[in-house]
Amino acid sequence: MEKKVKAIIQVIIMFVTLLTVGAIASQASAADNSLQKVKQRGELIMVTSPDYPPYEFQVNKGGKSRIVGMDIDVAKKVAKDLGVKLVIKSMNFDSLLVAIQTGKADMAIGGINPTNERRQSVDFSDIYYSGGQSFLINAKDVNKFKSVKNLRGAKIGAQTGTLQYGLAKKRIPGATVKGMDKSTDLVLALKTNKIDALGIEKPSAEAYVKNDPTLKMIPSGYHLNKNDVGAAIAFKKGSNSLVNAVNKSIVQIKKQHLTDKYLASAGKYMKVNTVNTSMFHYWTYFAKGVEYTILISLVATFFGVLIGVILALMRFSKQKLFRGLAISYTEFIRGTPLMVQVMFVYFGIGVVINIPALISGMIAVSLNSGAYVAEIIRGGINSVEKGQTEAAESLGLTKGDMMRYVILPQAFKNIWPALGNEFISLIKESSIVSIIGVTDLIYQLNIVRADTYRGVMPIFVAMVLYFLMTFLLTRLLNYYEGKMKHAG
């Protein structure tokens, strides 16, 4: 039986892999109509990670939030020249290139350096801005780290997968390089002395220094070719017509020195954010995060239970095929991380069917929850005494009625605490959907941190909100558990 299950799992994995690879390959081999598609649609879809001021960040003005920054102005210029509307999608920085590879967007912008490694996966426009490299240090260490030479053997932080990470590895002897996904996390690590310095683009370093007196900036000392290490716009491989059209806009941007104008505009917006950095001022951000977190959890709970019941019943089926499929699904889902599942549903299946980020997150969390709920329900069914089954049979009940009216009600009563724990876990685990740009509580938390330059307080607020949600749910579940015991 185990060999059959393993064989089924292998077939499923091979099928899914071939489906995804085949879809990507077919799209890659298609004729270049990238510019034509954008113009026919009338929209230029762009992905960015709005947590990297002054390149891209969110501004909170009059309780309303919008994405601004130098890169956003560059993208608006490009869209205007193409005669189309700019549509902005937000997601984590490390998902930007995947988004354009899988057709979720036409281009990605975000202070992206066109390294040789990245050029193997995507196409790049010409460099539109070269800001240079710097290091952020704590103000109290200004005499300790006067230049990059003093950083030898130090602990250096850099955003994972960026040029700064690679440069620190190669150019600073004896340094221990620590990578994180978000610059906000790295700044917090610096301020709490987890790292000695943070490798970062010069404009971003200047933005932090202007808005946080506890930080200082020192030059990187790197001697780099600006034409290779500046910021460029990324496109899907083979998008030559769109790249060429965008490059025409970049020529104008450089000729007219528009990036200086865009940076000045970004600076004004940053002042708006730092006028009031109280968490109450950003309550709408947290409220939206809570709303999406609860919505995802409720949907995942409903479909998770539905999927769990079906899988559990399949496990008790006399049909080997049904049992094999249920076992294969449960083992496969439980054996892979939820983050990978979320990314696969959004990017992998999204190659064939374009599923919105929120729906993708709900699907992935529901499918994941279903596998765990199935095992909980299976345990609950096994916990029902055999005498109950025999009594139902003696009354002439069919197997379907027996399961519906006798076994499942008792099973759910037995497993209610375990199901409650699964529901509570869903609220916390659903935070993983932030990696694909779903504006849940974790996503909003990171936006507030980037906008206010406050590292700890937004985290504390999110912790309190998560606690309140789980505490209230626990009380509700305990109430119904008490009623069940009383009824029994």
Automatic annotation (TrEMBL):
Q: Which UniProt keywords apply?
A: Amino-acid transport, Cell membrane, Membrane, Signal, Transmembrane, Transmembrane helix, Transport
What is the recorded membrane topology of this protein? Multi-pass membrane protein
Q: What are its GO cellular component terms? A: ATP-binding cassette (ABC) transporter complex
Q: What family is this?
A: Belongs to the binding-protein-dependent transport system permease family. HisMQ subfamily.
Question: What's one GO MF term for it?
Answer: transmembrane transporter activity
Query: What GO biological process terms are annotated to this protein in UniProt?
Result: amino acid transport
Give every ABC transmembrane type-1 domain span.
Answer: 290-478
Signal peptide span: 1-30
Q: Which residues cross the membrane?
A: 294-317, 338-359, 455-477
Q: List localization entries.
A: Cell membrane
Q: Which InterPro entries match?
A: AA_ABC_transptr_permease_3TM, ArtM/GltK/GlnP/TcyL/YhdX-like, MetI-like, MetI-like_sf, Solute-binding_3/MltF_N
Q: What is this protein called?
A: ABC-type amino acid transport system, permease and periplasmic component
| CDD domains reported in the protein's UniProt record | TM_PBP2 (cd06261)
Q: PANTHER family, from UniProt?
A: GLUTAMINE TRANSPORT SYSTEM PERMEASE PROTEIN GLNP, MEMBRANE COMPONENT OF AMINO ACID ABC TRANSPORTER
Q: Which domain of life is it from?
A: Bacteria
